[in-house]
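Audit log entry. Action: structure prediction of a protein-small molecule complex. Ligand: adenosine-5'-triphosphate. The ligand was supplied as SMILES and no pocket hint was given, so placement is left entirely to the predictor. Protonation state taken as written. Sequence taken verbatim from the request; no trimming, no tag removal. Recorded inputs:
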Amino acid sequence: MPRSHVKVFVRTRPTARPYEGFRVHKDGETVTVNLPKEESSGLINNQLESLTFKARSALIRLTAAFDGVLENVSQDAVYGAAGAAAVDAVLSGYNATVFCYGQTGAGKTFTMCGDGRNYTHRGVIPRALHQIFREIDMRPDKTYRVAVSYLEIHNEALYDLLAESPGTSSEALAIMDEAAAGGGCNVRGLTQEFVASEEEALAQFFAGEQARSTAPHALNALSSRSHALFSVALEMRTSEDAAERAVVCAGGVSKLTLVDLAGSERTKKTNASGAAMREAACINKSLSFLEQVVNALARRDAHVPFRQTKLTAALKDALGGNCVTVMVANLWPEAVHLEECVSTLRFASRVRSLETDASVNESADPALLLRRYERQVRELKQELAMRDMLSGRAHVSYDDLSEAEQRELRELVGRYFAGQAGLDELPTDSLKRIRETYRAMRAIATAGGGALGASPAAQLQQAEGRGGPGAGAEEAGLVGDLDPGSQRGFILGSAPLGARPPGSPAAAATATGGGGGGGWGTGRRPASGRVGGASGERPLSVGTGAGATADAAGGVGQLGGTQQLAGAVAADAPPLRLDFNALFLKWKAGSGEGRRLAAAVRERGRALAELKASVKDAAARVNAAKAAIDALVAAGLAAPGDEGAVEHLRAAKASYRAEFDRLRELRGGLAPATDALAAVKAQQLEAFEAWAAAQGLPGGAGGAAGRIQAFHGAAAAAGAGGSDEEDFEELDPAETFERLQMAKLLQTDPAGDSSAFHAARKRTVAGGGAAAARGTLKASPVPR
Ligand SMILES: Nc1ncnc2c1ncn2[C@@H]1O[C@H](COP(=O)(O)OP(=O)(O)OP(=O)(O)O)[C@@H](O)[C@H]1O
């Protein structure tokens, strides 16, 4: 997600005495407040670009635009405008924060938490939990872990609302800014409850609500005396590569933070005194620090005082960090609250000018990264093997050399130095083997010739028997000696001063006239000719063409030769191509392992196809049950008071739930069935490769080439050979349809949606008295 403006919505509390000077424009995004001139004194802030004030005769007109003005709208509509997109962002791996701001009694808690006793009036938090778990259910191809936490900031102290004793401020709680480590703001020591369902998550939320600090005052019978931050941490992995990819950030996971701020209050209006007065002072102070932070951010100040108060430290990401942020400005549009309305609108305008920088949280887990890199290495090796096969090169292994292969290579180099093996016998087909050759040469050269009974120089001279013009240097700096300067390797010789890059006339002249070609130049800066075919400052390349022998121009060690390693193919070697598709089909149709594995693939494919068909049927039955409920509801409305109809409706709802549970259960089996099929397919490929290698086919079935050709080829050639895959691959559109159906159904489900809400309420409030979210009684709200 690109750098984005923070979205701001204004929500007005319904009132019997609306202020007549408050008007929402037709665009649904702009508000105008007309203020009597005398009342507006001190309100005008000329620095505020997004609020325009126009003086009329007796009025000041104030206009401001937002992302939406929600006047007289349902909780559902508020969530649709201000909550759903933030939750979507979190499900896609971003952090998001939704916070409510406004004066006391303006409806912040109603917006964020809702009325716990009334399902229709549930707020953003329960709706977000519903959306999260509904989406999780809809994405069987992904694995999720969800954890919730609930932090309260009361009188500048931190409280863990999900702790066993939530009324006790814990010294262990601390807001940590982990931005430097790639994370965000986290609260160390805060309880994180892992939840597996909407009901469990809601039970935690209700339990935390019970522990929140509230008190009555003149403007609100249930006024929140604290700021409350409910967080949902979400870790997502995709099943197809669940082992190696997780969308998580260094601090944990992508996070949704839902904030119900305490309201600013004029104590003369709330009649606060004693503890309530102190609370009000604390609340107002922290809100004024919040305003300072927002102002500093809006001005792009170098220093932003986030650490002045716990609230701003906790909201740092939401205000300017890695976060998708939504603010709901709650207004109480009555004449008596005009001043508060204007100051809320002013603050909201400032917030709207802020920018955050949201980016997907990806894993920084070293183990996961390692698996990803291993996969990339595997794929690159397959890519190389594919190129080799397509260019007709013989099979090249890009794996590390085994001990036996290293030993064999050392012996070969020894024989080469002893003059018993030619240069063309030294390997030139892969960098790994070339490097290993160098290493073996260095080992011999630095071993003092013990093995061969001669000094390194003598061995080298012997090896260079055919000697180039640079041969015979007795000075320091022989080829094969450790370079005393760099310690990085042995000396290959230096290019003559007049050397030119290949292609230049001088280089061509040198190349043809240098004599000797091939073999290792051993001297340093010979008077004339070239050293090992040196031709300027080009990097080392290796001659690998057919017939590239020690005697041919451009032998091993040639500097600046024209042949490139990757494309080193003899010009006259015909490209070797095998029809792996045909081979694969033949192998599957034959006897033995090929046949057995093909049958296994077919069987698991069929099982998956059957499962998908069952899911489709189950979805159809759920839809039918839903249609039956709709019909009964419509009939009930037409004939109210019909006891028989009520009974039918109850039965229809029960059947709907049963069908729905069955559908959910079936869908749960899809991921394992898909994995099982993928596993047997992988096994089949490995076996095919091994078989092809055993047949001595060039390229051992071509590594990736074999895989890719065989797999895609088999599907393409299905008409002839019978594909194992076509039966179930074709079901994808049906699956898509079924998913859409389920999404639609879950959105409109009248019977199922509220069950988690009511069950969680029962568990915590009705059933547990002071909340029993985890099966243990939590402490009652503690007066503070
Ligand atoms: N949109 C609304 N529709 C119906 N009732 C509302 C609405 N907004 C607020 N209320 C009611 O107004 C009262 C005060 O609301 P609420 O407690 O949410 O205010 P608040 O801003 O959170 O106040 P405080 O800062 O004191 O906690 C509650 O009884 C609430 O039910």
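Audit: result stored. The pocket of adenosine-5'-triphosphate is lined by residues 13-14, 102, 104-110, 115, 220, 222-224, 262-263, 330 (CB under 6 Å). Residues 581-751 form one domain.
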